[in-house]
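Model it.
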Amino acid sequence: MNRGPSGTGIVGVLALAGITAAVTQTLVVPLLGQLPQLLHTSSANASWVVTVTLLAGAVTTPMAGRLGDLYGKRRLLLISAVPLIVGSVVCALAGSLLPMLIGRGLQGMGMGIVPLGISALRDVLSAERLGSSIALLSASLGIGGALGLPIAAAVAQHSNWRMLFWGTGALSVAVAVAIWFVVPRTPVAAKGRFDPLGALGLGIALVCLLLGVSKGATWGWGSGSIIGLFVATVVVLAVWCWWELRRPDPLVDLRVTARPQILLTNIASLATGFAMYSASLILPQLLQLPTATGYGLGQSMLAMGLWMAPGGLMMMLVSPMGARLSAATSPKVTLSVGALVIALGYGASTLLMGSTWGLLIAVCIINSGVGLAYGAMPALIMGAVPLSETASANSFNTLMRSIGTSVSAAVIGAVLAQMSTSLGGHTIPTESGFRTGLLIGSGIAIVAAIIAVTIPVRRLVSTAGPAKEAAAAPMSVNR
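Modeled.
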């Protein structure tokens, strides 16, 4: 088992893998206005370029986690890099909507890299390195998203848009090679078989839920299509839960997931995902709206990305601090503090939204809180599940964050659409709309902090690496 100095290389490779996967999520943001022309389609159809990546990631992440527990996390890390590579190439060569959707869907399938990497750390690192490494890797999703935006904007503005995808393809190849040579094989502790029907049921339920949430504003929240999707979600989830509870080898062990420590952590994760994403929806618009509005700051896409980028760096800087706070107190304290810092950042943004430097400060505060909170979630999850379920449990937690961001997009989007005005023939959110959205983000972050305080931390298994894990094996089941 690789230990000592090699741990730095392992953490570096897995963090790069997570950042690469996250970059693909914001890659097309600078292109959204040009996609209808580039792909010879309508604006409504072009929006699927974003939606399909979200859906593919949500559906495949829990599957990747379970397969990682069953067949080895290193193997699944390598497999997850394949759709990132292939999807990037397909997008780079796309000249119409269909191949672009296929490529973006493949890129979404690579999102399982982050929870798989977090779980692999538990197998290969010593106790001294584990906490800070988990925090950094968990924050890589936000880091990649924050850093990817200005890079993508610069490339889109000064080069051919296809270079965005060729670049991520090359980076994904480098990640796969690095995983092959640096990340050691991980032990397989889980037994049983993969549950294909469980995977199918969860996939259908997630597609119905996220499709309804993401398209509600476009199709109409009261339309038959949206109502039908939500009804289908409830029905399919009910059947799926019935099936999973009767399976000897479920895709998601619902009895373990229902333990208070895991259940409340997942609920807090959903709320934190909501709070985190609200800033991503509001602050870029404030930076880019024309100054003629009286509250817009008139920045270009590239300048906006550069003003937002330091937030990603703050997540990287605070993640080790969060690990030390968790070690000194408890991960639930770190999660609570992180959520409160997010709420503070939103409060500051309502006072500082009149200047670019003010919003930069607000972004740094919010993302510092996200870095603290996101780093604590895997520690809470892995402190409550046996070694054989770490990848599956972390993947489910990542899914909860994704659902939170999707709900945030729907709620904040609806608020901004309702509180809007007309300027130059275009409908734009009002200043009151932005302030309301910021207050909602702050309120949800406070809710996340309250939920985190109630988490009954009860260490069921050791998270101190392989050697101590074996010693703690008799404690791994607590009924």
